[in-house]
Write a structure and sequence with these properties.
The structure holds two protein chains of two kinds.
Chain A lengths: L6 H20 L5 E6 L6 H20 L9 E6 L4 H13 L4 E4 L3 H17 L6 E4 L16 E3 L4 H14 L6 E7 L2 H12 L1 H4 L2 E8 L8 H10 L3 E3 L4 H13 L5 E4 L7 H5 L7 E4 L7 H15 L7 H16 L10 H9 L2 E4 L2 E5 L6 E2 L2 E7 L12 E8 L1 H4 L14
Parallel strand pairs in A: 1-2, 1-3, 3-4, 4-5, 6-7, 6-8, 8-9, 9-10
Antiparallel strand pairs in A: 10-14, 11-12, 12-13, 14-15
Chain B lengths: L2 H21 L2 H26 L8 H16 L13 H19 L4 H18 L4 H4 L5 E2 L13 H24 L1 H11 L1 H6 L4 H27 L1 E2 L6 H14 L6 H16 L6 H15 L5 H14 L1 H33 L1 H10 L5 E3 L2 E3 L4 H26 L19
Antiparallel strand pairs in B: 1-2, 3-4
Helix pairs in contact in B: 1-7, 2-7, 2-10, 2-11, 2-12, 3-4, 3-10, 4-5, 4-10, 7-8, 7-10, 8-10, 11-12, 14-15, 15-17
Classes of the chains: A alpha/beta, B mainly alpha.
Chain lengths: 418, 423
């Protein structure tokens, strides 16, 4: 991989090296942010959504001057959809000098990255890296695996369910009998627990709980008949993608009257695929363009001008997360011309920003973001339509960060640097 | 090739591998570790698929079991480890062997499609069980461990992990090669050629198949263990069908007929994934195209090309062999460049970002590719790939003409024979 240099270049080499060192002192290497996302394979569309949100925020940061007089570099790595690939690409990113890694799609990958980051930082004091998690929601990332160099900029099952239950209760559509149906892996199990935990606050009884295989079921009719016979008035589910869509379609076919409380109904394509079946169902999400007044409109218009579409699904949370990173970077002074990651992480713990939804801050105890959540219902009179249909998400209630917050998990024992 | 030449080639190959840490960056060195692990996995696989003729579609099971067993061994005794770090792959080997014995006993009762389906079922069983058994496989987030210092080495750096992997891969490859020379290895070959005849000769065909299965899954377990040591973590995704599919693809692209073919294919495809996946979103498409083309035109695998070139030289002299090979290489490069150009242009043209840009501007803006910008509506843009493909076609045609118009007609020069001798 080494090109041979002409003799004149060889003679000039010492001078060039000296020059490079001098300029290096005057102007340090820019901060490199590595996006370690699923950009190929079956989950690539989710990875692309995170990418567009992250890219939007970083472009905005660079437009306002970057960091330490230089634009922040965003380098993209394709984790190929799995933890092993993510582990490899993380090593490549570290070799490239990346100090901040960003990832969102999949808690399995998130779990791998947070552990790899912890081990790297243990072995390389003074060369720490920080993991900015914009979408992996497994409880254990801020529980048993909680780590000083991991920051989560999205909700989790407890936060989302708390907001969803409170919002549906205020809308008078929650009822007293709730059916919990979820995918049988860490996320679905977290959701099931959260639905049980919020029963007292919501004034409902969980009539039955079901965990089913993830993305393997083609016919939800047997599950729907169980829901019908349980007499539930509301179905709360953490399901996403096909599992959510097929469940809703099977319910419609069986004439089920129950309302759905969901958390990922705004994934692009879901509303278009479900059609009228989606009407009247609820969702707890991080952003609704109709909810935040003029601030929201400004954000939506700016996002649309830069990327060509209205921010949906995980794009707003990724953009807000990176805006917080940008704010913390701005408040961190360079040390010896470079970024001190530990100083940056400590600044990030105290960073507060305003998003169109309200104030967002980072909780130092477990590095779980405290962010507002909005509960919306699928309706035809929504201002912004989803997927080019005549339906959209109409906000029901916005919860402030404090109202939506869930307590710190007892299992989080964070080791902090001195 | 004479024995001394082979030894010289092997020796320089090993010396090059040993020198790699001094030559490569940390990122590339990690890619080399992945390539070594994939090479061992593919060689272990091809013992079953190539030598025994048993096409397994679920080899990720033994790779994954080896990885998890090694992680548990790393975490044993409150993180001190069951064995010193350099010996940990033994645990992976043992686990692969054990699970291979159980699964293989059932699977090798049958052959052909039924065998393939049983192996697929075993792998899928593990893949759907693993997320439920949180104690064994750690649920979705998997199990993580840390490499402990041993024998005066910290195993904190990539270089130390590289040498550990290299030592184990070389040892395993040597053992796999040696297996082919033993009477059992020859019997395995006989099983592939004619299982019925083996039975009539009084041999236990099921036992021979089972032994091949067990040896193969044991070495797959070592590969899994090495991956666990390198990544210091694993989760149930290692049981995914795509891992099983990758090893089949790698082995056949390299060529299951020769001993080092699968290793070459695996190393090549792993490096391809490492280098190309960040450069383009269409890398899976390229990988698929490569597989289809290899299967269509070089069914014995890429290593078959060397054999074909050697035979050409023997029959027609080195002058013609070199000129035809050079023509073929240049034609392939031109065709690849043309196809890549078209695919990348189309991918950018259809991308979300570009459609947004086009919708805002009202016209089709030029696309930046290979350091230049290309207006998609202009004929000149599309003439570039067309010219490349035309040149490739012309060169290919010339090479073919040189092949079919022999100066001295020879009886066997008509076609390149498909079956590679097993070495």
């Amino acid at each position: 991989m080494r090109d041979s240099l002409p003799p004149s270049a060889l003679r000039a080499l010492p001078a060039m090296v000296t020059l490079a060192c001098l300029t290096g002192l005057a102007q340090a290497a820019p901060v490199k942010i590595g996006l370690l996302e699923t950009l190929s394979g079956p989950q690539a569309s989710t990875g692309q959504s995170f990418r567009s949100g992250v890219k939007y925020a970083i472009d905005k940061m660079n437009a306002s001057g970057g960091w330490n007089g230089q634009p922040v570099q965003l380098i993209e790595y394709d984790n190929q959809g799995g933890p092993a690939g993510a582990s490899d690409k993380l090593k490549a990113a570290i070799a490239d000098g990346v100090q901040i890694v960003v990832q969102g799609a999949s808690s399995a990958i998130g779990g791998q990255i947070t552990e790899d980051v912890r081990k790297h930082n243990l072995r390389n004091p003074g060369k720490e890296i920080v993991y900015v998690n914009v979408g992996a929601e497994a409880m254990e990332l801020t529980g048993e695996k909680c780590n000083f160099h991991h920051f989560r900029f999205t909700g989790n099952a407890q936060v989302r369910t708390k907001a969803l239950v409170a919002g549906m209760k205020q809308a008078g559509t929650l009822g007293s009998k709730v059916y919990a149906i979820n995918q049988n892996y860490s996320w679905g199990q977290d959701m099931e627990r959260a639905i049980g935990d919020n029963a007292a606050a919501g004034g409902y009884q969980v009539v039955e709980k079901t965990l089913h295989d993830t993305n393997k079921i083609q016919d939800f009719a047997p599950y729907v008949s169980k829901i019908v016979s349980s007499g539930a008035e509301t179905v709360i589910t953490g399901n996403w993608s096909n599992d959510l869509l097929l469940l809703m379609k099977a319910s419609k076919a069986a004439g089920l009257k129950a309302r759905f409380g969901t958390v990922f109904l705004d994934q692009p394509g879901n509303v278009a695929n479900a059609g009228d079946t989606a009407l009247g169902h609820f969702i707890a999400h991080a952003f609704n363009p109709e909810a935040g007044g003029a601030d929201s409109t400004r954000f939506v218009d700016d996002f649309k001008a830069k990327t060509g579409h209205v921010p949906t699904f995980v794009e707003p949370q990724a953009a807000f997360g990176l805006e917080m990173v940008a704010a913390a970077l701005k408040a961190t002074k360079p040390q010896g011309g470079a970024l001190n990651v530990n100083a940056f992480a400590k600044t990030l713990e105290t960073t507060r920003i305003r998003t169109p939804m309200g104030e967002v801050s980072m909780r130092a105890a477990d590095h779980q973001v405290l962010m507002p959540f909005v509960v919306s219902v699928v309706a035809k009179d929504a201002k912004y339509k989803a997927d080019g249909t005549d339906m959209g998400f109409k906000p029901v209630k916005v919860f402030t960060a404090e109202e939506a917050a869930a307590p710190v998990q007892a299992s989080c024992k964070m080791q902090r640097p001195d | 090739m004479s024995r001394s030449w082979t030894l010289l080639l092997l020796g320089s190959g090993v010396a090059l591998l040993a020198a790699l840490p001094a030559l490569l960056s940390a990122g590339l060195l990690n890619a080399s570790i992945q390539m070594l692990i994939a090479a061992l996995f593919a060689c272990a696989y091809s013992l079953l698929a190539g030598r025994a003729g048993l096409l397994s579609f679920g080899h990720a099971a033994y790779f994954g079991v080896g990885a998890f067993a090694t992680l548990h061994a790393m975490n044993a005794f409150a993180g001190k480890g069951l064995l010193p770090t350099p010996l940990l792959p033994l645990v992976g080997a043992f686990a692969g062997l054990l699970v291979g014995l159980v699964a293989g006993w059932f699977a090798t009762k049958r052959s052909g499609t039924t065998f393939a389906m049983i192996t697929l079922a075993v792998a899928e069983l593990l893949h759907s069980l693993a997320p439920q058994l949180k104690g064994w496989f750690g649920g979705e987030s998997g199990i993580s461990a840390m490499r402990m210092p041993a024998w005066g080495l910290t195993f904190g750096s990539t270089v130390e992990v590289y040498y550990l992997t290299l030592a184990w891969v070389l040892l395993s490859l040597a053992l796999l090669h040696f297996h082919g020379r033993t009477p059992l290895g020859r019997l395995t070959l006989a099983l592939r050629e004619n299982g019925h005849r083996l039975k009539f000769l009084g041999y236990d065909a099921h036992g021979v198949g089972l032994s091949a299965f067990v040896v193969s899954s044991m070495f797959a377990g070592i590969a899994g263990g090495l991956q666990a040591i390198n990544n210091e973590a694993a989760n149930y995704v290692v049981f995914d069908a795509s891992v099983s599919a990758a090893v089949v693809l790698n082995s056949y692209i390299g060529g299951v007929g020769s001993f080092l073919g699968p290793a070459l294919g695996a190393a090549l495809m792993t490096f391809f994934g490492y280098a190309v996946s960040d450069a383009t979103r269409s890398w899976l498409l390229y990988q698929g195209m490569l597989f289809v083309l290899v299967m269509m035109f070089v069914p014995v695998g890429l290593t078959g090309l060397f054999g074909a070139a050697a035979r050409l030289k023997a029959r027609r002299g080195w002058r013609l062999a070199v000129s035809v090979s050079a023509l073929a290489v240049v034609a392939t490069l031109c065709a690849a460049a043309g196809v890549v150009f078209v695919v990348e242009m189309l991918q950018r043209l259809c991308s979300h970002d570009y459609r947004a840009l086009a919708a805002m501007g009202g016209s089709w803006p030029p696309i930046a590719l290979f350091g230049r910008s290309w207006p998609p509506g202009s004929v000149a843009t599309w003439l570039v790939p067309a010219a490349l493909l035309a040149v490739a076609g012309l060169l290919g045609w010339t090479a073919r003409r040189a092949l079919v118009s022999p100066a001295v007609p020879q009886p066997e020069a008509a076609a390149i024979d498909g079956q590679e001798a097993l070495t």
